[in-house]
Each structure stands twice: as C-alpha cells, then as structure tokens.
Design goal:
The chain is an alpha/beta fold. It binds iron/sulfur cluster. Its cofactor is [4Fe-4S] cluster.
C-alpha cells in the first residue's frame, strides 16, 4: 500500500506508538515558532526549566501581533521574548520583520520536517511539504525541551486539484470552495493533503493560502508535495540546500478524497460569521462595506499585493471605504517599494500598514459599530476584528481590491479585463536581508544574558494536583462552536495584557457574558458547559488558562476542538465529553456537580457525575492518552515538567 506525504513524514519522526488512525503516537519535532502573544508562555516555561540546550533544530520567536500599543505593555513583552530568545538559543524576529507564518515559509520551513507552532495558523508552512502543526505555547515549549509531540494519529483527507485557475480567480477561492464542501468541521481529526495536477500550477505563496486555511476546515494541518515549484521557491530564497523532493506514492491510500476542478471556480466570499458560509461574490454584490483590508498570513504575498495594485491603478478608493494594506513581510514590502508598486497603491488612496497581523486580530483598524468589512484574512467570527457588532466577509485580494473601488462586493471579472492579471507572479529571486532576525549565533555568552521581565509580565498561574473529589458549580452554559475568541476576545486594548494574567483574566467571556468574571470570582471551584466543537478557532491557550486561574476544574462538552482540548489538559482542566449528548439539555448554569473517586474513575476513561440539586447522574468520557492522564493528575503540564 502506497504512502501519503503525511505518512512518510510521520513515519520518519515516529518515537512511540503505531500510525493507526485514532492511536496516540509520539513524534519528534524539528522546528518551533511562537509569537508575542503565545510565545510569552513558551518563554515563561523555558525560564522555569532553564534548559542548557534546546532539542529542536530551529526555534523562532516572532513579534508580529502586539506591535502597536501606545503604552509600554507590548515593549515589555517584546523585551522579554528577545532576552529569553538570546539566552535559550532561539531566533528572534523584530517587530516589522513580518507575520510569523509568512516569514517562516520564506526563511525556515523545510520539506519533510515537523514543526510545532504556538499559533493555529502554523499549517501555513505546509506549503513547503512540512508537517506544521499549531498548538499551545506550553506544548510548544515541551517540544523544545525534548518531550516531542503527542498526537492522535490523524486520518488523511486528500484534496485533489485538477485544472488551472482562471485569471481573477485566486488560491483564496480554492480555500473557500474547500470550506463550502467540507465545512469548518470537515477536517476534524485529519490532515489535509493537497495533490493533483492543479497543485503544479500554484506558487508556494498560493499553496500557503490553502495550507493556512486548513485549520478553518478543523484539520490538524495541511500539507503540499515538495516538487519543482518548491525547489524554485527555495532557490529564490537562496535556500536551495533545504530542498528535498517529497511526493505521495502513486498508489497512496487516503481516508477521503475531495476533487476540486480549478477551471470551474469563480470568485467566492465567506459571509459573516463563519468561514464556511460561502457564496459567489456575484451573489452578494449588494453588500456595501465600510472598510477593506488586504493582508494577514493568508494573503499578503508579493503577487497578492501586485494583483491588488494592478486592479487599483488608475482608480481611487471609493469615498465610503477605508482601504488598508499590510504586506506579509519586510521582504515583500521592500520588493513593492523597489518595483514602484507601493506608489500605485498610495496613489489610489490605500493606507499602507506595517508588516504585521494588525487588523486581522483587531490590532488597529477595528471596524465601526455595526460596520461591514471585507478582508483577505482567514476568520470572520464575531469579535475577531475587535468589534463585536461588525460583519466581516472573507475574500481574495482581487475581490477585495475591486470592492474597494466600486464600494460594493465585486467580482473582479465584472470590473476589468482580468487577462491583465495573468503576469502577476512572484519575483524570480527575492531580496535576502535577515538583519531583522537576531540569530542564536549572534550572542557571544548566552548564559550571561539577563532575561528582562517588565511590569506587564506576571507569574504563571499554577494549580495543585487533581482533586480526588470534585464539587463545583457550573458558571456558564454555552452553545455549539464556541471559539477561543468568545472565551477571551482579541483587540489591542485586551491583548496588551496577555502576559499579565490577573488583568487579562478580567476580560474572560467579556462579550459573551459580561457578568462572567464577577460570578466566577465568587466561586472557589467551577465547571463550564459547552456544546459541539468547544474551543474552536485559535490556539490561544489563555482560553484554558484563564478559567483555570479562576478555579474551573472541568469543562463538559459534546465535543472539543483539538488544540483547545490539549490546552485544557495542559492547564489541568478535565475535558469531559457527554456519553449521552442529551444530558447536555438536562443541566444548567448554577447546578452543582459532584465527582467522587476522580483519580480511579479517570483511569477507566469513563467518569460518573452527580447533580445533587437535580437528583441526576450522568456519564462522561475522558478521552485522553496515558501521558495526558499523568499530566492531568499532576494538575497540568507545568507541574508535570517541574516534577519530572
Ligand atoms: Fe496574525 Fe491573523 Fe495570521 Fe493570526 S491569522 S497569525 S493574527 S495574520
């Protein structure tokens, strides 16, 4: 039986277990990344363990999310990351150098390797044939400390691309078509492997758009073959030596195959408030946005912005629209400047932002109240943009640029002769300037580096070992598809406190339930009740850490999103799934839950829960590996690492 790319990479990295779907395995990790939201956590773990040497080949901290604060909080965080990187042997990427995933593809991603990144869009580097998986900062830190990565062997879904995109139709439209077909749950428990003749027609940045949005499909990651296109990209990045060919065997077997004919695609948009609510751009032409954003780790390549500039050239941005553009990296920005493209953008009325996440996560350019935004980013959950009332449509750079001129959502093919866009390709050779990275070799005596911990960085909250008798009150009952943004929202006024846990915790569920913090503070121990796919969205581990900080011991849910479940375990919170989903309807906020003999019951994987005030008892499942169980019993990963 032939092997998929996924199976080839996993086999090469297997340390424990067998690659049978659903079975837990331990794999080695070659690279890691973290940034100025999630990397702080990883740095704090390194600080508490103080390793002599990291186990990974390449680890990088990027400053790309929290770059615009008007007070000193972000600078504190950046200084902390910089000095921790210098002391413990990581690369450090300065603010302005670019968005982590985008930069990682350019400068570090290698075919055949495994990367763990403290960010859900880590799959972006799958564009180069690397298994690149998002996780929480604590899990990433564990892999830097030689613990490898424990994962459930995924299924492999093959998205087979045939044909070639027509001008005006973009990689983003393929990603949206995949979401239309598979939905945000279609990839759960799976890795998406992109193959087929159509793949050969896509550049590495186009592949990155698709790999990036694999996480929106609910998948563990997405991966592309490493082929001639990959080789040419690495040559252009002066990294030819990093190339190896990596293709699936001709007779590779997949758990599911989805065919997409690129010839048939047309410009698509995702409607508010889910990436899988997909329509043709022509079907929503009556939508009139107030703002348009072209950027993010999904769509901020040179060719993305070049296409936008060709559409904008000779036109002015519509009077009712605020257009912002953020190039993905300093390298892209420099090419845009030297090739004269930036002048066309500025002349059209576009505002150029720094090379960072920015609007994608509500750091600046928050839409107005009840506003409508068109964005080339990857998520449109409520609150993601920094505004709870805004409606965000996701689209390609081509659709976004045409929309910015006409003032309503526009299929670019109705706006211009799209044949003019056919020659918008990536540079044959990129300008290489790594001066905005501080490299491990740049530091003469790493041991002497003092890690500078400013006022904005609090100690990590810790909890005791798992209690053998839990008695706790439900503090909130939630529906399906609760996102990590619902649990702890984005926006610069909130995220600037990400390293200051007592302050950051004040915003927990602040939009979903403004009374949550006041109520949970009155409880010593609490539980949270969720529906299906609880904790979907980002890898933001604070969505687990903050409830733990307030004393949450259990989350009951119909099902959990993978990364969030991992984070709950890392923070010593029991992720319990209803054995009978109807029991969800029988329990409410303010009910008291009692679990006896927790330690013994946990060993069986089935835990009985009593609700004395209702005379009710129901069964739950604790679906975790033996390793995760040890972590839970210790009270979380930090305790586990310290006690090891
Ligand atoms: Fe940054 Fe947005 Fe990409 Fe997250 S999804 S890494 S916030 S650009």
């Amino acid at each position: 039986m032939g092997l998929s790319i996924t199976n080839k990479i996993l086999t090469n990295h297997l340390l424990e277990g067998n690659l049978n779907p659903g079975e837990q395995v331990l794999v080695s990790v070659d690279q890691t990344l973290g940034h100025d939201l999630t990397g702080i956590m990883a740095a704090q773990v390194l600080e508490s363990v103080k390793p002599e040497k990291l186990s990974t080949e390449t680890s990088v901290f990027y400053c790309d999310h929290n770059t615009l604060a008007v007070s000193s909080e972000n600078a504190d965080d950046h200084m902390y990351l910089k000095t921790a990187a210098e002391k413990y042997g990581l690369f450090f990427s300065k603010p302005g150098n670019g968005i982590c995933h985008f930069l990682h593809c350019q400068r570090f991603a290698k075919p055949g390797k495994i990367m763990l990144g403290a960010d859900s869009h880590t799959p972006t580097s799958g564009a180069l044939g690397m298994l690149s998986i998002g996780s929480g900062g604590l899990t990433v830190a564990k892999s830097m400390l030689g613990e490898g990565f424990r994962m459930t062997t995924p299924k492999v879904i093959n998205i087979r691309l045939t044909g070639k995109l027509n001008p005006g139709v973009a990689a983003k439209d393929i990603a949206l078509e995949a979401l239309r077909i598979l939905t945000v749950k279609g990839g759960i428990g799976a890795i998406i492997e992109y193959t087929g003749e159509g793949v050969k027609t896509l550049s590495v940045p186009e592949r990155a758009t698709l790999a990036n949005m694999s996480i929106e499909l609910g998948a563990t990651t997405g991966v592309f073959p490493s082929d001639e296109v990959t080789y040419q990209f690495l040559v252009a990045e002066e990294r030819a030596a990093d190339w190896v060919e990596l293709l699936p065997d001709e007779d590779a077997v997949y758990d599911k195959v989805v065919e997409i004919d690129l010839n048939e695609l047309e410009p698509l948009v995702a409607r508010p408030h889910m990436p899988d609510l997909v329509s043709k751009a022509r079907e929503v032409e009556d939508v009139k946005p107030n703002s348009v954003f072209i950027g993010s780790c999904t769509n901020a390549s040179y060719s993305d912005i070049l296409k936008a500039s060709k559409i904008l050239k000779g036109h002015k941005v519509h009077k009712d629209i605020d257009l912002t553009i953020a190039p993905g990296s300093k390298q892209v920005l420099e090419h845009l400047i030297r090739d004269g493209i930036l002048a066309d953008l500025v002349e059209s009325g576009a505002r150029i932002l720094e090379c960072a996440c920015g609007p994608c996560i509500g750091i600046g350019q928050v839409p107005c109240a009840n506003g409508i935004a068109v964005r080339t980013s990857n998520r449109n959950f409520p609150g993601r943009s920094g505004s709870q009332s805004a409606s965000v449509y996701l689209a390609s750079p081509e659709t976004a640029a045409a929309t910015a001129i006409t003032g309503h959502i526009t299929d670019v093919r109705d706006f211009m002769d799209v044949a003019e866009l056919s020659d918008c390709s990536e540079p044959e050779a990129y300008r290489i300037d790594d001066s905005s990275f501080i490299k491990p070799g740049d530091i003469e005596n790493p041991k002497d580096v003092e890690v500078i911990k400013g006022e904005n960085i609090s100690d990590l909250p810790m909890r005791g070992a798992l209690r053998d008798r839990i008695e706790a009150v439900s503090v909130i009952k939630l529906g399906d598809n609760i996102t990590t943004d619902d649990i702890i929202p984005g926006g610069s006024n909130i995220l600037k406190y990400i390293a200051n846990i007592p302050k950051f915790a004040e915003f927990t569920f602040c939009y979903t339930d403004p009374t949550f913090v006041e109520r949970i503070k009155k409880l010593d121990y609490s539980v949270i009740i969720g529906g299906e796919n609880y904790g979907q969205g980002s890898s933001r581990e604070h969505a687990a850490m903050l409830p733990m900080f307030f004393g949450t011991e259990v989350v009951f849910a119909k099902s959990f999103a993978r990364i969030h479940k991992e984070n709950l375990i890392n923070y010593g919170i029991l992720p319990l799934v209803f054995k009978n989903k109807d029991d969800y309807d029988k329990i409410d906020m303010d009910d008291t839950f009692v679990i006896e003999d927790v330690l013994e019951q946990a060993d069986t994987g089935e835990i009985a829960v009593k609700v004395p005030n209702k005379g009710l008892e129901f069964k739950t499942l604790l679906e975790v590996s033996a390793y995760d169980l040890r972590v839970l019993k210790e009270g979380g990963a930090l305790n586990y690492l310290k006690n090891k």
